[in-house]
Amino acid sequence: MAKPNGISKQELIQYAKQCLVEKGTEKFTLRAVADTAGVTQGTIYYHFRTKEQLLLGIVEDNCETSWQEISKSNTYVLKQAIASAKSRCSYDSFFHQLFILITAASFKNDKIRYQLSEIIQAENQALSENLLKIWSESPVKGVSMDTWGIMFNAMVDGLAMQALLQKDFPVEKVYQELEQVIGVLTSFGKKEAIE
Amino acid sequence: MAKPNGISKQELIQYAKQCLVEKGTEKFTLRAVADTAGVTQGTIYYHFRTKEQLLLGIVEDNCETSWQEISKSNTYVLKQAIASAKSRCSYDSFFHQLFILITAASFKNDKIRYQLSEIIQAENQALSENLLKIWSESPVKGVSMDTWGIMFNAMVDGLAMQALLQKDFPVEKVYQELEQVIGVLTSFGKKEAIE
Amino acid sequence: MAKPNGISKQELIQYAKQCLVEKGTEKFTLRAVADTAGVTQGTIYYHFRTKEQLLLGIVEDNCETSWQEISKSNTYVLKQAIASAKSRCSYDSFFHQLFILITAASFKNDKIRYQLSEIIQAENQALSENLLKIWSESPVKGVSMDTWGIMFNAMVDGLAMQALLQKDFPVEKVYQELEQVIGVLTSFGKKEAIE
Amino acid sequence: MAKPNGISKQELIQYAKQCLVEKGTEKFTLRAVADTAGVTQGTIYYHFRTKEQLLLGIVEDNCETSWQEISKSNTYVLKQAIASAKSRCSYDSFFHQLFILITAASFKNDKIRYQLSEIIQAENQALSENLLKIWSESPVKGVSMDTWGIMFNAMVDGLAMQALLQKDFPVEKVYQELEQVIGVLTSFGKKEAIE
DNA sequence: TATGAATGAGGTTTCATTCAT
DNA sequence: GATGAATGAAACCTCATTCAT
Prior knowledge:
4 copies of one chain form a homotetramer.
Chain A: H1 9-23, H2 30-37, H3 41-47, H4 51-75, H5 78-87, H6 94-106, H7 110-135, H8 145-165, H9 171-191
The structure holds a DNA duplex.
DNA-binding region (chains A, B, C, D): 29-48
Domain HTH tetR-type (chains A, B, C, D): 6-66
InterPro entries (chains A, B, C, D): Homeodomain-like_sf, HTH-type_Tx_Regulator, HTH_TetR, Tet_transcr_reg_TetR-rel_C_sf
């Protein structure tokens, strides 16, 4: 019964994340979080005024994580981003399950919903900038770089969602062919914008 | 006190759908469904053995709806599909909210999860066939028509998710530019497959 | 979906008995009985005004069965009765489970309780008479034949209850030794009553 | 609104026992227990994870009570045990009603069933030892002391069950005559074992 | 005669939240 | 700071019973 006293907000959030994915939205109870963290429910209430505050904490944390990754990936190139996306594209993806679960919860919580949109827009922006690095300009006339970022991000999330549902989703094949498409677009971009 | 109102399973499912989107996963209670439908909770249990069965009923219903639309869209062309996707791409989209909610629920229910994957694969397939009609062959060498279907569907869902979260998501702009991209790909496909 | 119309009260009681033992008091619902009998709940209400009436029907039926066996066993001798008791002395004994279940229910239903007592007294009486046949008079002075009947019946039920609870209850051994005891008492009875 | 009344598991079990006998299996609801104990239903669930656990708690409690009595009775003699059994042999016996109710419940719960069998076997054992004290050896050849314990216990339970059902069961008479029988057996035992 | 849709009261259970310690 | 006993509202679910057909 060793009591590792002094649990931090941050730690609680990590445990809560774990719980959320392990138990799903339905069974995501404060009791479960407390058990996972090895503390009592009272302790959670010492750190978060309500359950909603805890959920918000999770989202904020994800937000920060995302920002860090994005700023990192700014220094790398697109390949890195794709590799990362591919690795998260699976039936058991913690990351995307969490995202879907929070998205589902966000429909009834405007604050969370807004934060999620901020995260996504930052991702879109970062992707757009990365694409610019390898394309220098949009390979298709009339399609802005912003839109390429949006579409790229949408594609990655959309594929992830399919993989999340379909056990034998052909991740390898699809990502390989997706890179093919990007390659072709890149080669056009380098020649001239296509009308 | 039995009043044979004559409510059908189908009607209950419709009311349940309405409830699910109006109240969100968290507040999607059988009492709420019962109230919405104007029956007692017992009545729901007469038609569905558990809440989960009701949820499954909703999914199955969506499945059938999807199938019908897909078989319809086979006779139409891709433009139709895009228009439909665009119309569903909004901050308040009942359709996509329901989908996300069910997806979230599916993580803890393999049966639902499997059914969802079936729906998606059917959509992918239908899209692939429609693309073939206007492309006759894949515009990018090494990218199978199946993959085009998958990617197209992923894109549509990904965009919808963004629109769901971001109030001022530029639906018009993005879809217009997406069509631009498709147009370009089509023109390539008509010349020759690109290496 | 062949509907064997015209189910009788008697048949319903048999199905109800089966249900009671298969599902236990707790899950002994009219729905379960109806399902077992292949009819609807309404049908049960056609034959029995309430659930209690059905339970009473079961008890009455058992009563009649008992009477029949008792009057039969009057013609046979004690050995028969013992063999029958032994065969019913097991971990899975339908007969005794039913008896315990009904006894439990009887605590809140005086009518049932009274009927059960009538059954038992009849059994006691029959046993007493059978003992008289082989003993001609009580082998122990001061112990009436009525009491022997009561004690014998109590012993049989008590052993059955133990067997009902204990998986490896040594039925064979105990009954063999019980017969030994009876044998000894009999031999005394034949010599002279013991003081 | 948390009022630390400080109700203990033990107390809850006592209240539950009271409820069980007062209301019978059918009406043995957690609401009733909560009301009797003066707490809310939630409180019960704080102490017992399910209703079944509470029932198990009752059984375990009875188990311990039995053990205590048994170990006590080891120091006393058989007369004590008989007197105790007789006092519990009545139409309203809390003790035996509880036992029957739990036995009925045990048919659907192997854990409870097993515990009951353990209690009974301990009783059998204790009785056998006590009989040995006054008999020194089995008064009937071929009948082991273990079996005497089993039979004695069965007799006591069987008589109790009859008394439970029959309002005017002749407790006094039967127990007096039962002691007579034991006396006779004892006197044999002292002479020599009977063949 | 029998059915099956519907009811409503009440059961067990869960859970965010409170508060004395 | 942290705990854990307690709450109470509300969730899911069951079931005897009713009644139009």
